[in-house]
Each structure stands twice: as structure tokens, then as C-alpha cells.
Amino acid sequence: MEQSILPEIKKAAKKSLKARENELASTNKQLEILNGGPFAEGELPYFKDKIAEIGHAPLRPRKLEILQINVGYMCNQVCEHCHVDAGPDRKEIMTRETMELCLEVIRNTGAHTLDLTGGAPEMNPNFRWFVEEAAKAGIQDFIVRSNLTIIRANKKYYDLPDFFKKHNVHVVSSMPHYTRGKTDKQRGDGVFDKSIKALQELNAVGYGMPDSSLRLDLVYNPSGAFLPGDQEAMERDFKKALKEDFDIDFHSLFAITNLPISRFLDYLIASDNYEDYMYALVDAYNPSAVANVMCTNTISVSWDGWLYDCDFNQMLDLKVGSKVKHIKDYNEDILNDRNIVISQHCYGCTAGAGSSCQGTVA
Amino acid sequence: MANSYYDPADLRKFGKITEWSEELGTKFFDYYGKVFEEGALSAREKSLIALAVAHVVKCPYCIDAYTKDGLERGITKEEMMEAVHAGAAIESGATLVHGVQMMNKYNKLSM
């Protein structure tokens, strides 16, 4: 990366693209970039043509397994790679009324997993009420994606480990690296130390311990313009380093590829890595990952109740291709009979061993 | 045609060498892929060896490729720089050990 670009990105990264009125806050602008460049010039194949080669176009859902609900874009961190463009300045927060609609769906869904995400979901003022109500629905696997630092961000969050335990929540947390330097570079100064402390507190109440049913999984995503390495090898390295250095235990590591949208797209373009990254994604295309990409078993709900094929499509405002588009009209049978909306960012989920919110898919 | 000998974009075209000699190209890439699999040495260790050799043979494509490979494997920059020094030490040692030849010759020719 050219040295001159770094300070500019670092400085800008304290606010969301939206607050900075950056042109990439526009989803149309992002889609224009994803459809243009090497794809429009015929140097790289469009995703739809690539999956047509193996008979997967149009891409269709399998059985619905995961209901992923984004309860708001507000976050205590402003990570450089964030595909949500989340941050303290984002005011999009799910209301209690929309949560009521979600609860109705959670009580009746055929999905076995409920996955709450954000932003920092804990910052939604109705978060605890929502978790308590959702836990009563008896869903098999109830995930909350917690960024760890939120647990140490303010006294009112200090008891989150106990709260999660009480409701048997499966905690999935981001941890870009087991070294301070790489973590803080991506997520902000001090994030590493706070994350370590939060992990130790989760361990203290039983989360992540070898035989514990309180599941604690970590998410690794690369801190730069490169793809994640082998998930199992990374998990081995993380486990060894976190145990030796900080006596931390966790269950699994999910290696997730950064998709070229929002702030990560901004970073790729500003650092002159965009084209190489798209080539790398297309080069790493793995046809056997296509059948299991997460949009084939997931519905994503936005803070204002709209329905999407995945959280990435949500951030590109690509709503589901179904006559049911909003949680108020939710109907699983109608929704499952849809074509999944795709663009070139989808190469991120089919690269290498594939990528999803649950890690590799191939 | 680029007006310099090295173009970073050429790295992604590496696979095309097979087009002009399919048998040899395919054999080479099969061999190459096999070499870097997990074995008695881990793929991670082999990536660091490749990075060191890339510097010694001064291949800019290989340096780009194995810096990126190292990042993907979670290899730290300190580990990468130590690998480069290991390569550099062998390379400078290879030069300096010839100093003995120079000394031998000097002594032989001198009264």
C-alpha cells in the first residue's frame, strides 16, 4: 500500500461512510463498481455466468435453517473492514414494534438457528427484552454476534456474560488476530486488550471451556486485502496462542472472507487493491462451495423489517426477489420459492473453502 | 506490451505458461502444488522458506505471492522479516566464505 494513503484512511475511519457523506455510502455507487471494471471489460466473468456453468443459475434456496436479524447499525467500534458501515454515528435501530413482528416469526419458523447481529446488537435499548422473549421460543441454536469490547465498554454491559449464560445464548465474537498489532490496526487502538479481557470473563462463567455447552466461537477475518487461510490451521494457531499467552479457551474459529462492499470496498479502492482482490476472489472460485452458500439457507432481516438473502445484500439494499419483502408479510413457503439476488460480491462467499457467517462451507 | 520487464499483473497470468506447453506446465504446477501441501514440514513453515528463497533469487512475483500467502496464513511481519534475514545471511555467507579462497590465493601468490 502506498504510504501516503494510510493516514487518510485511518483518519477517515473514525466515522462511518454515511457520516462522512462518502459516495460509497450509496448502494447504487457500490453496485456500479461491482458491475463495472474488469467485469464490464470482459476480463473477469460475472458471478451469474460462473454459477450457470454448473447449473446453479438462478441460485435457489434450500431449506431455511437460519433466521438472521440485524437489530441496528449502531456500534461502539468503527472497524476499517466493516461491511455494515456501522459505528456510533449510525442511528438505524430496530424498534420494539418491529421486534414484536420478528418474535411472531421466531415462534413459528422452521429455522433451527436464530442469529442476532448488528452493529453491536447489545446497544439496541430493547436488546435484553428481545433476547428474553426470543429465548422462550425454544429455538435450537440462539446466536448473538458480540464484538467483545462492548462487554467492557460501559458498566451497564459488564454483566453481559451472565446474561448470555442465563439465556443459553451461543456467543460468536470477532477476533481478527491473536496479536495486539494486527487486531488494533483493523478494529482500533485498545480493542485487543479489551477483547482479551472480555474473552477471559466469558471463560470465567463457563463459555468456551472444552466440555462446556455454553458455546463461544470466534470469527477471524483478514486484516487487509487478502483471503483467509485454512480455517483449521488458523484455529490451531489461535487456540495455541490464546491459551499460552492469555489462558483463553474457545470452541471453533470461523474464517470469513471480507466481501468487497461498504468500508472494505472503500479501503480496497483507496489502497489500490480493488482489482487484484477481485481477481483473487475469482481465481479462488470453488464450484463446490456454491450449493452451500449461506443465502441458500438463510433469511436476513434488517432493522426496519425488510427481508434479504443475506446480511451483505442487506447492506447493498438488494431486497429478496419475492412478493414477500417485509417481516410484516412474512411467509416462509412463499419466501423459499424465490431466486436469490446476486452480484459480483458473491464471489467472496465461493472463494477457497467458501465463506459464511458460520465459517467455511465447502 | 508493457515497457518494463516486470508487470505485477503478470503474476496472475502465471498459469498461462501451460498454454504453450501443456504437459510440462501441468507437471510443474502439480509438483508445485504438492510441494506446498502439509507434510513433514507444515505448509506454514514452507511458506516462510519460500519467502526467504524469493528474496534470495530476487523474484518480485514470488515476493508478492509469498508475502500475501504469509498474511493469509496469519504469519506475522516479525516472522517474515526473520525469514528474509535467514535467506540474506546464507546469501552473504555464501559470498564471504569465498573470502577464504581469496586468502588462499593471496597467500599462495605472496612471498
Automatic annotation (TrEMBL), chain A:
Which key words tag this protein in UniProt?
Iron, Iron-sulfur, Metal-binding, S-adenosyl-L-methionine
Q: Which Pfam families match?
A: DUF3641, Radical_SAM
Q: Name any cofactors this protein relies on.
A: [4Fe-4S] cluster
Entry's Gene Ontology molecular function annotations: catalytic activity; iron-sulfur cluster binding; metal ion binding
What stretches pass through the bilayer? none
Q: Which residue ranges does the record assign to the Radical SAM core domain? A: 59-292
This protein's source sits in the domain of life called Bacteria
Q: What is this protein called?
A: Radical SAM/Cys-rich domain protein
From TrEMBL, chain B:
Which segment of the chain is annotated as a signal peptide?
none
According to the entry, every stretch annotated as the Carboxymuconolactone decarboxylase-like domain falls at: 23-101
Q: Which GO terms describe its molecular function?
A: peroxiredoxin activity
Q: What is this protein called?
A: 4-carboxymuconolactone decarboxylase
The organism is Flagellimonas allohymeniacidonis
Organism placement in taxonomy: Bacteria, Pseudomonadati, Bacteroidota, Flavobacteriia, Flavobacteriales
